[in-house]
Specification:
With 346 residues, the protein is α/β, with parallel strands linked by helices. Helix content is 42%, strand content 16%. The strands form two sheets. It has a six-stranded parallel beta sheet, sandwiched between helices. A six-stranded parallel beta sheet has the order 9-8-7-10-11-12, with helices on both faces. Strand 11, helix 11 and strand 12 form a beta-alpha-beta unit. Helix 4 (107-113) crosses helix 5 and helix 7 (182-192) packs across helix 12 (297-309).
Length: 346
C-alpha cells in the first residue's frame, strides 16, 4: 500500500447515470467527488447492458490492477450480487484493500435467503460501510461491523424554501416499480380530494415496468387533471418540481436510506413517508417527517391533512428537514470517508 496522501481508488457499481435518463447512483457521485478532490480514480461500469457491464468491470480491474490501492465495491444483493462476488474476488486476488459499501432496502432479506454466500463474500472486505443503521444492524446479525456514512448530496444545488402555509401540491418521486408502491400515492390523492378538492399530485420517476398500470389507475380513480406524470427528471427538472410542491409523499414498501427523502428535506418539503426498512433510522416522526405504516392509506391521508392545517408542524418539519439534509453534505461526508482511507494507509 502506498503511503502518499492520496490513495488510488476504484469504484465498482452501476455508473449508468452517465447516460441521460438514468438515475445517478451514489457510487458515481462519490467517484466524481473524489476525482475533484485530486484522487486518482477509476470506475466501472457505465455500460447499460448488464452482461457488458460485468465484462467491463472484469476488464477494468485486470487492466488497472497495479494502479489501485483501495477497491470500493457497491453491494446491492439480488442479481447484481454475482457481479459483486466476482469484483471482490478479483480485488482479493490482486491484494487490494477492499471497502464494501452496502445499499438496498432488500439486502437483509437477500442475506437471509443466502447466508453462506453473502457471508463468504462480505468476509473479503477490510471495512464495511452502510448509509444507515438499518443495514449496519442487518450485517451485525452475521458477525460483521459496518461503519455508518450517510449518502451524499450536493447541498448547494438544492434551494431551500421554508414551508408554513402549505398548498395541497404533493410530489412523489421514485421509480414506477411495485416496491415503491405508487398505487398508494394515487389512492391518497383520491381520498384527499374529497375534503381538499384542489389537491394535486406530481409523479416523477423512471418507468420500472409499472407506469402504464399506474396511469390506468389514475383514470379509473377519476384523477385526470389532478395528477401529472413527468417521467424521469434531471437535476433541473427535479429542482423545479420541488419548488412547485409543498409536500413530499413517499410510499415505498422496501427502502434503505432513500436519497429522495434527503433531497426533499434539502428543499424544505415536509415529508410524509411509510416507516419501512431504514426510513425510521433516517426520519424521526413529527420531528423530521410524518411516518405511517406500510400500505396505511388512512394514516397517509391523515398525515397530509395534518400538515395542511398545522402551520407550526409544517414549518418545523421543513426546517428540520434541511438540517437533516446537511448531514449528507459533502462537507460532512468527506471526512468520514477520509478516516477510512487513512486507516488503510501503511
Amino acid at each position: 500500500m502506498r503511503s502518499t496522501s492520496k490513495l488510488r481508488l476504484a469504484f465498482i457499481g452501476p455508473m449508468v447515470g452517465r447516460h441521460a435518463g438514468n438515475t445517478t447512483m451514489q457510487g458515481q457521485i462519490l467517484c466524481d467527488l473524489f476525482a475533484r478532490a485530486n484522487y486518482r480514480v477509476v470506475s466501472a461500469s457505465a455500460k447499460l447492458n448488464r452482461y457488458a457491464r460485468l465484462a467491463d468491470i472484469i476488464l477494468t480491474l485486470i487492466r488497472e490492477r497495479n494502479n489501485i490501492d483501495v477497491l470500493i465495491v457497491e453491494i446491492y444483493g439480488g442479481p447484481s450480487f454475482v457481479v459483486e462476488d466476482i469484483a471482490s474476488a478479483l480485488g482479493q486476488l490482486f491484494r487490494h484493500r477492499i471497502v464494501m459499501w452496502l445499499h438496498g432496502g432488500a439486502m437483509p432479506q437477500f442475506m437471509a435467503r443466502h447466508p453462506r454466500w453473502t457471508t463468504r463474500v462480505l468476509k473479503r472486505a477490510n471495512i464495511l460501510v452502510a448509509p444507515s443503521e438499518y443495514l449496519a444492524r442487518a450485517v451485525r446479525e452475521y458477525g460483521f461491523t459496518a461503519r455508518v456514512i450517510p449518502n451524499v448530496i450536493d447541498l448547494s444545488r438544492y434551494q431551500y424554501r421554508c414551508r408554513r402555509d402549505l398548498q395541497p401540491q404533493i410530489l412523489w418521486m421514485r421509480s414506477f416499480h411495485p416496491i415503491y408502491n405508487p398505487e398508494l400515492a394515487l389512492h391518497v390523492l383520491a381520498r384527499l380530494r374529497k375534503t381538499v378538492p384542489d389537491a394535486a399530485l406530481v409523479m416523477a420517476g423512471k418507468d420500472g415496468g409499472h407506469e402504464y398500470e399506474i396511469r390506468q389507475l389514475a383514470e379509473r380513480l377519476g384523477l385526470n387533471g389532478a395528477v401529472r406524470f413527468t417521467g424521469f427528471l434531471d437535476m433541473l427538472g427535479k429542482l423545479r418540481a420541488g419548488q412547485d410542491s409543498d409536500i413530499f409523499l413517499n410510499t415505498s414498501r422496501v427502502d434503505n436510506m432513500p436519497v429522495a427523502l434527503v433531497e426533499a428535506g434539502a428543499m424544505g418539503l415536509p415529508i410524509v413517508s411509510t416507516a419501512v426498512g431504514g426510513v425510521p433510522d433516517l426520519l424521526t416522526d413529527r420531528q423530521t417527517g410524518l411516518l405511517v405504516a406500510d400500505q396505511d392509506l388512512d394514516g397517509a391521508v391523515s398525515a397530509v391533512e395534518l400538515l395542511l392545517r398545522d402551520r407550526g408542524l409544517a414549518e418545523k418539519l421543513s426546517s428540520n428537514g434541511r438540517r437533516l439534509a446537511e448531514r449528507s453534505s459533502w462537507e460532512h461526508v468527506e471526512p468520514l470517508w477520509e478516516q477510512i482511507f487513512s486507516e488503510m494507509r501503511l
